[in-house]
TrEMBL record:
UniProt-listed SUPFAM superfamilies: RmlC-like cupins
Signal peptide residues on this chain, from the entry's feature table: none
InterPro entries attached to this UniProt entry: RmlC-like_jellyroll, RmlC_Cupin_sf
Coiled-coil annotated spans: none
Gene3D superfamilies noted in UniProt: Jelly Rolls
Protein name as it appears in the record: Cupin domain-containing protein
Domain of life: Bacteria
Length: 120
């Protein structure tokens, strides 16, 4: 994880999502699962969580429940968010609001997304 430059910067943090995306794609390529992720803000014990996720082409985050209000911002590549009733394709720069339903996310090409979740 990218850390603040000093202890004084604890209240403000700056991340290079571009650099992290490159790093996570390399890790995904070395992973048997073809994916890699890192939470950059918040976590399970917080209301807000932002996680950068790299998926190699063809890899899927299997169907799962929506843990709260969520969005997927596509940093690189092309992804498909799917529910039983619909699907949405996202390209670089697109923001997809995750519906309050079971869903999956598939990488249509090597991709990196920022998943933002605010638990209800």
């Amino acid at each position: 994880m990218i850390r603040p430059a000093s202890a004084e910067a604890e209240t403000m943090q700056k991340f290079s999502l571009d650099a992290l995306a490159r790093e996570l794609l390399k890790r995904a390529a070395d992973s048997a699962q073809g994916r890699s992720s890192e939470t950059v803000i918040g976590g399970h014990e917080h209301v807000l969580r932002q996680t950068v996720i790299a998926l190699l082409s063809g890899q899927t985050l299997g169907e799962h429940e929506n843990p709260g209000e969520a969005s997927v911002f596509v940093l690189r590549g092309r992804v498909r968010l799917r529910t039983d009733e619909a699907s949405w394709d996202g390209l670089h720069g697109d923001l997809i609001a995750v519906p309050p339903a079971r869903h999956s996310l598939e990488a249509l090409e090597d991709s990196v997304v920022v998943l933002t979740v605010a638990k209800l």
